[in-house]
Amino acid sequence: MSRRTRRTPAAAAPTPPAGQRPQRRLWIAVALVLTLLVAAGTLFWVRSAKVPAPAVASSALPAAVTEAVAAVAAASYVGAETCKTCHESEFQAWSGSHHQLAMQEATAASVRGDFANAKFRKDGVESTFFKRGDKFMVHSDGPDGKLTDYEIRYTFGVYPLQQYLIPFPGGRYQVLPIAWDARPQGEGGQRWFHLYPRQKMDYRDPLHWTGVYHNWALQCAECHSTDLHKGYDAASKTYQTTFSEINVACESCHGPASAHLDWARQARAPYPPQGSKGLPTLQSRWNEAWKFPTEDARFAVRDRPADPAGMNSCAACHARRSTLSEDRKPGATLEDSHRLAMLTAPNYHADGQQREEVYVWGSFLQSRMHQNGVTCMDCHEPHAQKLRAAGNALCTRCHAAAEFDAFKHHQHLAGGKGTQCVTCHMPTQNYMVIHARQDHSLRIPRPDLSIAFGSPNACTQCHTNKTAQWAASAMDRWYGKRWRERPHYGSTLHAGETQGLRALPSLLELAANPTAPAIVRATAATLAQPYASPATLPAARALLHDADPSLRVAALGMIAPADPVNRVRSGAPLLSDPVRGVRIEAARILADVPDTQLPEGKRAARAAALQEYETALALEADWPSGQVNLGNLRLRQGRADAAIAAFERAIALDKGFSGAYVNLADAFRQLGREPAAEETLRRGLAVLPRDADLHHALGLLLTRKGEQADALREFAKAARFAPDNARYAYVQAIAVDSSGKREQALALLRSAKQRHPNDVDILGALLSISRESGDHPAALRYARLLAEMLPDNAGLNRLIGDLEGRQIDH
C-alpha cells in the first residue's frame, strides 16, 4: 500500500445483483395442471406500445455538481495541509475528529490498546499483545493455525473501539478481530474483546481473521482513506492499493481541489457563486434556512430546498451499499457510484428499522425529516462531526419546545432518559459488540407493529421487563387509539417478505405511491420482482420514469424476466440514463439480447454501459460474490467457458460459498458436461455437507440421470436442512408423489402449506394431486385459495366452475 500524488486508473467493486439460481427441471408431470393455470403469471407477452425515454433524475447531478464537474474531472488531490492555508477554522475543527483519526500509522500516539504483554483467549487460542522496540506486535494464530508474531502497521478507528491492520503477502492487510475497547473503565472499557464472541471458527474457516472476508481492501478501506484505489490484480491475486491521504480528509467529501486552488490564487473580490470556484457547493444553510412560519407553529419549515450535493457526499460512506466505481463525482447521487441496499432482511426489520449494520443513510431516507428537507448538516457539524446543539435543544430548533419538549408529549418525568427525544425516536442498537448506533429513521414508536411482526420498539428497549402489548396499552392511555390507525409501509413490506404473491397488489400500490419515501417504494418494487408477470409490466414501465434512480433500478429488475422485445422496449432507453447505476442495471438485463434486436442508436449505449458493468465487476474481483456475478453475466451472454472460470475463481476465494458450486454445476450442465456438474456438486458437499442448495441441485442432476431414488434422498435433505424454503418442500413432495407415494406427498404438502400458506406452487400441487385423487372438495378449496392470488386467471376460474359443478352433481 502506498500514498499517491497522481491518480491512476480505477479497478472495480462489490456489485448489485446476487447470484442467480440455475434453471431447474423436475422429472414429474403431476404439476402440469398448475403449470397451465399459472402460466400467465410467469410469461411475458409482446406489446407494441412505445416506451418514452425516462425523465432525468433531479438528484442525478445536483446544480453545484453540474457547474463544477468539468473542473473537478480534470483536478488532482492537493492534501488537507494545503486546504488549511485558507480554511484554518475548518481544518482545526476536523483535527482530532473521527474522520481525521479514521486510519493512522501505528505509533505510540495513535495506538490505544494495551500492548504490555496483555493476553486474550478465545476458542482455545491465546493471543498476546506486546511491543518489540517501537513496533506494536500480536502473537496469534495464522492462516495455518500456528501461533505467529505479527506486526501491527495501522490503527483503524479510534472510539468507542479501535482495530488494527496487519500486513500480509501480496499487498493484503488483514483486520484483527480482537479490538480494543476505548471507552472508560467505568463504562466497561479499557479491555481487549472479540468482535464475534459467539462465533467459533478456526484457521480453516473463510471467516477466520486471515481469510478473504477480513481483508482491509475488500470492504473497509474505501471509507477510511481519501481517494483510495484498491488496485487488485485478479491474475496474481495481489494488491497495489493507493490513497492520497491515509484518513478521511477534506477531499474525501469536496473532491480533488487543484482546480479550486488555481481559482483561489487568482480570485479577487467580489467573489463568484459557490459553483464557480472549482468545487461543488456542500452547504445546507442550516442556521438560516429553518424558520417557524407563525408564532404558534409546531414545526419550522425550510425556506427553500437544500442542494442535495452535501448529503450525497455523506451517503457514499454512511450507507449499506456496494461499489460500482471508484471515480465518484463529489456531490453526485449515490447511485452513480454505488448500489444502495434495500430495506429487506437481514439488513432491516420488516418496518424498516435497522437490524444489521446499515450505516445510517438507508434509515434516514425513510424519515419524515428527509422528506421535509432536513439535511445531515442541519444536525451535524461536518468537520468536527459534532451535533449543532446538545440534547433536546437540537430538536427544538425545528420542533416547538412547548409542544414537544413537554410532559404532555413524552409522558416521562423530568430529568429521566425518557424525556430525551432521541430515546423514543432514535433507539440504539449495538454493532461491533459495543458501538451503540442510533436509528436515523426518526420514527414514532409503533409497539403495535412489534406485536404484528416482531420488529423492535423504543419503549421496550428501555423497559426491558415489559412487552410490546404493555407499551401499546400505555400509548393508548396517553394518546388515545388513533395512533394505531396511521398506515405504515412496514405492513406492506412485511407482507412482501412473508405472503408471496398475495402481497403483490399492495407492493405495486406502495411502489407507485409518490408520497412514500423513495427507498420504501424501491424496496416494494424489489420485493415484487419475483412475481413479475404480464400484469406487472405496465407498473414497472411507469416506475422506469421516476426521478429517483433507485426506483429506476428496481423497475429494471421487474422487467428482467420479460421476453427480449419487452425488455428492449422498456429497458433500452435507460442505457443512456444520467446515473451510472441505472445504466449498469439496464445493461445487465439486456446483456443477452443480440445487437440485431437492439435499436441501432442503442447498440453503442449498450456497449458502453456493459463496459461500466464489467469495470464494476472487475473492481470486486476479490469478492467471491463478485466472481459469481461475473459468471452469471457470462452465462447470460452465452459464454459458458468464461462463466466456469469465474465460478472456479469464486470457489478458490471461498471454498464454503455454495452458490458458486451450484452455478458452476449449472454451467457444466449447459455445456452437456453432466459428469463435471456432478463432481462439482459433490465437491461442494464435501465442504458443506448440510447445505440445502447443494443437495437440491444434486437431486435435480440425479433426476436427469434417471436415478430417482437417490434424487429423492437429496430432495429430502434439502427440505430438512432448509425448512423455510418453500421451493424445496414443494420439490420433495412432488418427487415423493412421482415415486408412487401419494399420501406421503399430500402429507408433506399440507405440512408445507402450514409454513407457507401463500405459496402458489404448493397450493397448485395440492390442487392437482387432490383433483387427480378424486378429492374434489379439497381441490375446490385449494383452487379458491389460488384464485385469491390469481383472480384474473381464466383457466383457474374455469376449473373452479367445473369443480363447483361436480359439487352440485353430488
UniProtKB/TrEMBL annotation:
Short name of any one Pfam family annotated for the protein: TPR_19
SMART domains: TPR
Highest taxon above the source species: Bacteria
Annotated Doubled CXXCH motif domain residues: 375-402
Residue ranges of the TM segments: 26-46
Gene3D superfamilies registered for this protein in UniProt: Flavocytochrome C3, Chain A (1.10.1130.10), Tetratricopeptide repeat domain (1.25.40.10)
TPR repeats: 624-657, 692-725
Assigned keywords, A-Z: Membrane, Signal, TPR repeat, Transmembrane, Transmembrane helix
Domain Cytochrome c-552/4: 82-108, 217-255
UniProt region (Disordered), positions on chain: 1-20
Protein name: Tetratricopeptide repeat protein
The species this protein was found in: Candidatus Accumulibacter contiguus
